Every structure is written in C-alpha cells, then in structure tokens.
Automatic annotation (TrEMBL):
This is Uncharacterized protein. Residues 105-132, 208-266 form a coiled coil. It comes from Rotaria sordida. The lineage of its organism: Eukaryota, Metazoa, Spiralia, Gnathifera, Rotifera. GO terms for cellular component: cytoplasm; meiotic nuclear membrane microtubule tethering complex; nuclear outer membrane. It comes from the Eukaryota. One of its GO terms (molecular function) is actin filament binding.
C-alpha cells in the first residue's frame, strides 16, 4: 500500500512539474512589464514556490525514507535511483527557468533600446501631417506619444534596475563562493600541514606555547572571518527564491560551522595532549636528574677502598654494602617506571626528531649506568 502511494506521488509530481514548467515557459516567452516587475520585486511565483508541488515533494521524501528503512538492498537501490532521478529533473528544470528569468530582462531591455527610434519616427510623422489635422487631434496624438515615451522610459528603468539587481546578486554569490572555496582550502592545509610545519623541530615547551598563543590567535581570527561568511551566506539565503540554491547555501552554512568546530576541537585536543606530553617530559627530566644524583652517590660509596684494618670495620663495610643493595632494589621500580616513561615519550608522534634523539641518548645512558651499577654491586659482593 505504501509502495503504491509512493508511485502515485511520483507520477502526480512529474505530471504537475511538467505542467507548471510549460506554464512558466510560456509566461517568460510572452513576458509583460508586469511580470518583469514581479520578478524584480520577488513576488513572481516560480515552480519552487508552488505549494502543491512542495507538499507533494515532502510526501515523496517522507515515503521514500520509510520505504528504504524497511526495504531489502535491491529495493533500496531502486528507491535511491528514483529519488536521484527526481532531484536531477527538478534541478534541470529549475536551472533552465532560472537562466530564462535572468536573461529575460536583458533581452527585453535590448528590444526597448532597439525600438526607441520608432518613437522618434512617429513624432516626425505627426509633425509632417499636423498641417492636415485639426489642432486638437495633433495635440491628442502628441499627448499619447508623450505618455508612451514616459511608459517606455519607466520600462527601461525597471529593466535596468532588475538587471543591476541580478548582476549584483550574481556577483555577491560568486564572491561568497570564492571566499568559501578559499576557506575550505585554508582549513584542509592548516589541519593537515601548517600546524605541523609551525611546530616542526621545536621543543615540547615551545610547541605548547606556539599552540596556546599563535595557533589559537589564528583560530580566533578565522572564527571572525567565518562569522562574516556566515552573515553573508544567510543574507544571500534570504534573498534567494530558488529552492535548490537555498538548500546549497544552507549546506555551506552547516559546513562552515562544522569546519570551525572541527578545527577548534582539534587544536584544543592538540594543546591538551601536548600539555600531558610536556608534563611527562618534565617528570622524565626531573626523574633523570634525581636518579643521576642517586647513582653518583651509590657509585661513589661502592668504589671506596675496602677496609682491612680490623674485623669491626670490615663488618661495618659489609653492612653498608647490604644497605646499598636494598636501596638499589627499592630504586629498581623507580628506574623501571622512568625507563617506561622515556619509551612512551619516544613513541609520541608530536615530539620533534631532535628531541627524540636526545631522549633516546638519555634512555641509553640510564640503561648503561644501571647495568654498570648492578655489575659494580656484584663485584663488591664477590670481593
């Protein structure tokens, strides 16, 4: 039942669309100054503004969605193709009529300009036959001619205003389109290249400062620019009558808002991640310094000359070695955590290669000193 209703909606829509298209085509072919004024004032009813067509289209979209939701794959493909074909037909007809409406004023204005000389010929003809006419007849002819001249000038003025309006609107739309495309290009380059280029080779702390200051300032400026574009887009949207163009502008407004949300979220996440990395790096640096000082002390104690004066001194020395062994055992957990932290930092893709090299050397030095320390304690045990 739903499928039959859907097919019936489609059939009625295509029939009505064809009929309304033919009517508008004829109106534009024999367009009067009244129709031109309606187009200029925005009161001319186009196919897109026809309530019957709009209601039918809403029913088609809604029924199509309901059918797709419960259809198998093959039927879904058919439904999607039918909807795409319908949208293409609507777009083609709208585009054709829009072009005709836009060229109508230019063509009519050209016709008026080309035929203005006829007014002068009529005036000349009246002058030539005025001697054979009653003065009242001559006066009446001149008055009608003057009235026609005024109407002619008004028509030319209306057409000029309409042409200027269409040209201005087209120029404004093109200006928005160019700005929009440049903004998209900036967004893609900024997200994929520029941020990394600005941070390339910098220390973690400097990268964090650049992100918090320079990058945030760029985003703030771009947010202002995007807001200006949004205002321009909404103004254009309010001036349009073509439903297809209105929908296109709506999509671009949503895209602009999504882009700014995306870039702001990306930068804030990058800042948060860099803050965590910076904290880890500082902890690693401080840990390295603490463990270095501790190992210096342990190595100094282990390398002292073994006392041989008496048994008591030897016993004290052995107790000292045992205490050092216990201290080393306690610090093994600290060393493991410190090395794990260092290796985690090595795997951070946002850290510069120069910092990675420095980290790698620090880790190797720690590992070597730890091994040396353990060898030294074994040597003391065996001595």
């Amino acid at each position: 039942k739903l499928w039959l209703s859907y097919q019936n909606y489609l059939e009625n829509y295509y029939r009505l669309l064809k009929s309304k298209n033919e009517i508008e085509q004829k109106e534009l072919q024999i367009a009067t100054i009244n129709i031109i004024n309606q187009i200029k004032q925005g009161s001319y009813i186009t196919i897109n503004q026809n309530e019957e067509l709009k209601n039918l289209l809403e029913k088609i979209y809604e029924t199509n969605r309901r059918l797709i939701k419960h259809a198998d794959t093959k039927t879904q493909i058919i439904l999607e193709k039918e909807l795409n074909d319908l949208q293409k037909s609507i777009h083609d007809i709208n585009f054709n009529l829009k072009q005709k409406r836009e060229t109508l004023a230019t063509n009519k204005n050209r016709e008026l300009t080309q035929h203005r000389t006829e007014l002068q010929r009529i005036r000349q003809a009246i002058t030539e036959i005025s001697s054979e006419l009653h003065p009242d007849d001559t006066r009446q002819l001149i008055q009608k001619l003057n009235l026609l001249g005024i109407q002619w000038t008004d028509a030319e003025r209306s057409l000029t205003v309409l042409i200027d309006s269409l040209t201005k609107r087209r120029s404004e739309y093109q200006d928005f389109e160019n700005k929009f495309l440049r903004f998209i290009q900036w967004f893609e380059n900024f997200l994929n290249n520029e941020i990394n280029q600005r941070l390339n080779g910098l220390t973690i702390q400097t990268s964090l400062e650049i992100l918090k200051n320079d990058i945030r300032n760029i985003i703030t400026d771009k947010r202002k620019y995007a807001n200006e574009l949004l205002i321009q887009a909404r103004l254009l949207q309010s001036q349009l009558t073509d439903q297809i163009q209105i929908e296109i502008i709506k999509q671009k407004i949503e895209q602009l808002e999504h882009i700014m949300d995306t870039i702001e979220q990306h930068v804030e996440k990058r800042i948060k991640k860099t803050e965590i990395t910076c904290k880890m790096f500082n902890e690693f640096e401080q840990g390295c310094e603490n463990i270095r000082l501790w190992m210096d002390t342990i190595e100094t104690n282990l390398q002292r000359t073994l006392p041989t004066q008496n048994t008591n001194e030897f016993h004290i020395h052995q107790q000292s070695i045992a205490a050092i062994e216990m201290d080393i055992e306690k610090h093994s957990t600290v060393m493991s955590s410190l090395l794990a932290l260092g290796h985690n930092l090595l795997n951070d893709t946002d850290i510069s290669s120069r910092t990675i090299d420095s980290l790698s050397r620090r880790i190797q030095t720690l590992e070597q000193r730890w091994l040396s320390l353990n060898e030294l304690i074994k040597k003391n045990e065996n001595s």
